[in-house]
Amino acid sequence: MQRIRLRYTKRGRLRFTSHRDFQRAFERALRRSEVPMAYSAGFTPHPKVSYANAAPTGTGSEAEFLEIALTEARDPDTLRELLDASMPEGLDVIDAVEARTSGLADRLTASVWEMRLDGVAVQDAEKAVAAFLDAEVVEVQRRAKNGMRTFDARAAVAGLEALDPQPDRSGDRPCAILRLVVRHVTPAVRPDDVLSGLRAVADLTPPVPAAVTRLAQGLFDEESGTVTDPLGPDREAAPAVSTADPAAAATAPEGAGSA
User: From which residue to which does the signal peptide run (predicted)?
Assistant: First the structure.
């Protein structure tokens, strides 16, 4: 059985698709592409697809991940192209590797988010960010199944900065970009929780809802403060192919030539 790991996006209007909507669209794409899927046992077998840490409905993403199990081996890049062509525009399959290591979900320990705050001056955003980072605890509330839940939004934040999307232009409507790095903890701290925290510590309230996009997710590097590619270990574990063997090089999956 071969396992393939895929990276996909949620762009434009498709950011409003729920996880269930994506599942239905992806399973249709599997059928259209005639992917030799492995199925679960039992009275209602379904395709063996493992989803990892899906972004909330309404947020865009450049870094969603899933894993599929196949009964027959396929070239990952060819499979990616077939699936991408069968998906709605905006739900784009942009990367594929053969799973050669275990624990993809264990490598998704942090996310990088971008939040566009239209109507907010960069200077105001910078002051709010400084107040948030200076606080030891920032309590926020979120409605859960059992009612309102109070938790700390500060501890999970590994990085937060305010950026100017148009540093060389003046006279336009104010806009600030927040770049957020947040660890995946329990309870999960989402971008909207951080916005609630900014409102609590600095009364920062954007006049319109923020446009939120996940730029990356993966293993958090404590030394550099960066989030690494979770598919990197699979690429590095791929066997090297000698260029002296043209036949082997022609049939090797993309990414198998380097460690």
Answer: none
Q: Are strands 93-98 and 2-10 parallel, antiparallel or unpaired?
A: antiparallel
Low-confidence ranges of the chain (pLDDT < 70): 167-171, 241-259
Give residue 251's pLDDT. 43
Taking alpha carbons only, the member of 85, 74, 84, 91 closest to residue 16 is 91
- The reported pTM is 0.87
Give the pair of three-digit tokens for residue 28.
């249709």
Calculate ∠ Cα 21-81-65, nearest 5°. Answer: 50
Cα 229 from Cα 231, distance rounded (Å): 5
For 26, the 3-state DSSP assignment is: helix
Q: Is-contact 51 23, C-beta < 8 A?
A: yes
Contact (Cβ atoms closer than 8 angstroms) between residue 138 and residue 193? no
For 44, residues 6+ apart whose C-beta sits below 8 A from its C-beta are none
- Residues 159-198 have pLDDT tens digits of 999 999 876 655 578 999 999 999 999 989 999 999 999 9
Bridge partners (DSSP) of residue 37 are: 70
DSSP H helices in the chain: 19-32, 76-86, 122-134, 191-202, 232-236, 246-251
Residues 6+ apart with CB under 8 A from 251: none
Q: Helix crossing, 191-202 with 122-134: angle to 10°? A: 90
Q: What is the pLDDT of residue 75?
A: 97
